[in-house]
Amino acid sequence: MITATATWPGTAQVSRSYASLVAHYTAMTASYSRFPALRQEVEEFLAGLPEGPVLDLGCGAGRDAQLAAATGRTVVLADVTPALLTATATRLASRSAVCCDALALPFRAGAFAGIIASGVLLHLPKPYTAGALEGIRRVLVPGGRALISMKHGGKDGWRSTDDFPAPRWFTYYEPEEFASACRAAGLRVARLDRSTRKDWFTATTEG
């Protein structure tokens, strides 16, 4: 397992929170049963990719990686939480698992045809977003795409919920605000969609 160093101090707390609830989080998110619209979003994204491997950045319980692999894609799992990544890689029988922070991607330029970043960049404060987006652009092949899921309409800060009773940092963007951040990082925004999933939206970007 390759390891890179996290570059925002708060990431350590986010990682500890996920590590404390690995079994619980996996039970909640390992399938699309609670997120039926998300499956369609990911399937449409995968269908539009050029040939090549896919990175599931912030893979969590591996739901999206498993779907991508089922289409015949080579998939790399990446997550900042070692315990969660190990559990997911074991469950999916994946040998391609990289423990890294979204701000320190240890991959060569142009390594991936597609990147799925579902609910991961929202765990970074806004001053760090540009670095994460620039990293995504760097590791995409020319014409490669990233599907980035974010939330809108909330107040930035640490929060916990009944479903996830450990603190995580959340950053909220209005969709066009996030699209502007993507463009500033050198990504072209091909689609910007408000999801039917409550306060989520997705940005489909090209490198």
Structure description:
There is one protein chain. The chain is α/β, with parallel strands linked by helices. The protein has one domain: Vaccinia Virus protein VP39 (Rossmann fold, 3-Layer(aba) Sandwich). It is 35% helix and 26% strand. The protein has an 8-stranded mixed beta sheet with strand order 1-4-3-2-5-6-10-9, with helices on both faces. Strands 7-8 form a two-stranded antiparallel sheet. Strand 7 and strand 8 form a beta hairpin. The model has no long low-confidence stretch (mean pLDDT 94).
- CATH structural architecture: 3-Layer(aba) Sandwich
Number of helices: 7
The averaged pLDDT comes out at 94
Q: What spatial form do the alpha-carbon principal axes imply? A: globular
| CATH fold-level name | Rossmann fold
Order of helices and strands: EHHHEHEHEEHEEEHEE
Low-confidence stretches: none
Radius of gyration from the alpha-carbon trace, in angstroms: 15 Å
Q: Estimate the strand proportion.
A: 25-35%
Tell me the total number of β-strands.
10
Class, according to the CATH hierarchy? Alpha Beta
CATH H-level superfamily: Vaccinia Virus protein VP39
Helix and strand content put the structural class at: alpha/beta
Straight-line distance between termini: 27 Å
> What's the arrangement of strands in the largest beta sheet?
1-4-3-2-5-6-10-9
Profile the largest sheet. Answer: 8 strands, mixed
Helix content: 25-40%
Count of folded domains: 1
